[in-house]
């Protein structure tokens, strides 16, 4: 025989009860099950709120009416008209009792745990009564069973302890007498010797099912709920959580003890003792296999099974020399807390024995502190102990799984994921059973931490990067287009999902933690009522507190640079095509690098030099592997390459520059290219990455422009000057051509010195054949000294630059 337990949502509406009936019809074809039911979803909470409200004088009439309405609506929809009235009458009797009870609480302004249990019992009594009547239309043998007459407990109201022997006898006896019946049993509630109602603890209907399962030696206990079984993490917090096909009892216990609400932890014990499998199934997707909890699970390759959390705890910290080497100290402490029924969630002690930290429910913290101060009064007076301190608003995150035992590196992975995301760990505990590693963190960081840890352990899943993008010009736009076009590929082949969580240009900004659609981002930004505000953008990026967060600067403005450091300090990686940051002062350059490193995040700027060409990365790889740069020679201005490659034959310089501008190869002001400033920045960044502490003023720039052109006040004046100086340029060209050479504007780093000069090179020079707007760079190093390492290709343009930013982005967190 099987036990089928249906949770709150499974009996929470007309539709779900219809589904439940279908599940029963299907199941009953084989054998009549025993059915255990919870209160309708939200009802237990409502009862708690009515009772607690009444103590402080709050009216409950409206809530009671709501409760009635929910039950009556179901009866009206699902019960034959002729059976409705008797059901209404029986329910109404319950509601009247409940009303009397609440009235009593309101009058006396007192709510004892005993009365509270009685109030709560109406949730299960009403729902089970209602469902058993409805079910009787299809299963005439259906009967309502009040579990308080069968499950016998002590009088610890709120969390009563079951007398298993007696209970099992009573259940067996009852079942024998009613073997032809189909039992619909109230979950959660029980009774003490005096016949008073007790409860088994919140979520306790699962436990009721296990108690019946054990008593009746059932072949299986099914827990029907509203999710696809036990998942790797709470699906409300981790969208990528997935269902676990199998768990051992211990794993299920650890996962549920630490917050995974899907099954009530004590449920495991009776099932474990009798080796009865527990199957967690989804009422709303009955075909799905769900999770089986049993003894022998197939070996799994994952080091952990899941991650669970408790989202609101307090810790108490005890410190002092009085504890060192004193064997009875912790004994005294914990007996005291046990005596006063303060439940300890987690304990850690430093190996110096100088401090003990333990976690409790927030409501218990103040009481625990007072008790400790009383118990250890003498030690406090003698300064052997410091006054205990309470820290609030904390959370526990625990990774759970039996495989952890044989797998080194689990805690390394956990702490790396937390550290990288700037989550401060306040305390750590690992049980010696090695089924669980728990950390205490700020409650504020919980969602971020949980998602980051989930990504870290379940690598075969997609890793999600949350990007905040500044700038929607050519590069920004192209990046979004590329991300949109390749999102499926990224997910399937690289297991990476990029969510654009924020976009800003100079006018507007827009945010969405679930990702801004890359089909409609322009409209979304346009329609946003948030005005652009760089500081506000950074604040939002920080406060959204998303895991694997990346700040992308696709602007050429000096303003965002001011916020890079703040981003690193908030454990946010930075990807930028903006050269201004790295080419400002050397101090600034090293601060970026060091701050990113200190916070364990990435700072990628491949597109600062040669757009998407792998130049920075190549140089870094050389340096990191112990090579040394002897010389770098480079042409890093696509604009100037284009100009010189077209400045031949009859062409005049003025017209070639004009054409370059018209074709979009120059900056809006072509002087920015021709003066060499942009080239200088790139050479400076390369020299710094090669290990030289240089400033911009150290770079020698030989201007290729005559004085009149340099002095021009406007773009028009500049073009006029180019025309007047035509002879100067023609002369350059002719003398090069005469010798079979070409003009090249070449940057060189040698012996720690950087110079950019105009040169005429012949066909033996590797830069002779450079075409179009290509860039070329040659590295002569200790290893590449006979023949240099050369990188060559298109070094400008939105497509290749955006592709470089794209590559940097998906490399974030890769190491
Ligand atoms: P029921 O009313 O059916 O007993 P519960 O609300 O007690 O249902 O438990 C189911 C809920 O548990 C799910 O809706 C889900 O939000 C939550 N939950 C928390 N952690 C997990 C987890 N690791 N796996 C599945 N569900 C979880
Ligand atoms: N109705 C009870 C609760 O909400 C018991 C349960 O649903 O398991 O805690
Ligand atoms: Mg539950």
TrEMBL record:
Homotetramer. CDD domains: AAK_AK-HSDH-like, ACT_AKi-HSDH-ThrA-like_1, ACT_AKi-HSDH-ThrA_2. Residues 318-392, 399-464 form the ACT domain. In the N-terminal section; belongs to the aspartokinase family. One of its GO terms (molecular function) is aspartate kinase activity. It comes from Mucilaginibacter mallensis. This is Aspartate kinase. Bifunctional aspartate kinase and homoserine dehydrogenase that catalyzes the first and the third steps toward the synthesis of lysine, methionine and threonine from aspartate. Pathway: Amino-acid biosynthesis; L-threonine biosynthesis; L-threonine from L-aspartate: step 3/5; Amino-acid biosynthesis; L-lysine biosynthesis via DAP pathway; (S)-tetrahydrodipicolinate from L-aspartate: step 1/4; Amino-acid biosynthesis; L-methionine biosynthesis via de novo pathway; L-homoserine from L-aspartate: step 3/3; Amino-acid biosynthesis; L-methionine biosynthesis via de novo pathway; L-homoserine from L-aspartate: step 1/3.
